[in-house]
Specification:
Order of helices and strands: HEEHEEEHHH
CATH class of the largest domain: Alpha Beta
Mean pLDDT: 85
Oligomer: single chain
Radius of gyration: 19 Å
Structural class: alpha+beta
Shape: flat
Low-confidence stretches: none
């Protein structure tokens, strides 16, 4: 008999994961507003008094990441020390690099196109994310 363990995560209002997701979404939105062809792999980590935004982003857009982070946190309602987190005074660290050439290769052109096996099907010629 095969034995399985099922795990899942469920978080409630105010959990740092929910705020982290909103920050990552806000960063993506800010970039896509300026550059619809941008490539964004953005993750956000939150701990007491600190937000870290990191990832690989290839874009022509200029975004003030700390400003986006603070506006998002304050918009959620964490805008003073009494709420347990203050978007006005928390530390914000960013570590953003361009997309790696290995990933870009897979996204720019599909494997089928690079190996000559795409045929005439346009969908097979697209890169990852199709």
């Amino acid at each position: 008999m095969t034995r399985w363990t099922f795990t899942s995560e469920s978080v409630t209002e105010g959990h740092p994961d929910k705020m982290a997701d909103q920050i990552s979404d806000a960063v993506l939105d800010a970039i896509l507003d300026q550059d619809p062809m941008a490539r964004v792999a953005c993750e956000t980590l939150i701990t007491t008094g600190l937000v870290v935004v990191a990832g690989e982003i290839t874009t022509s857009a200029y975004v003030e990441f700390p400003k986006v982070v603070r506006e998002t946190i304050n918009g959620i309602g964490f805008d003073n020390g009494n709420t347990g987190f203050d978007g006005n005074t928390c530390g914000v660290i960013t570590s953003i690099d361009p997309q790696s050439p290995d990933i870009a290769q897979g996204v720019d052109t599909a494997l089928e196109t690079r190996t000559g096996s795409a045929g005439e099907d346009d969908l097979n010629k697209q890169g990852a994310g199709d």
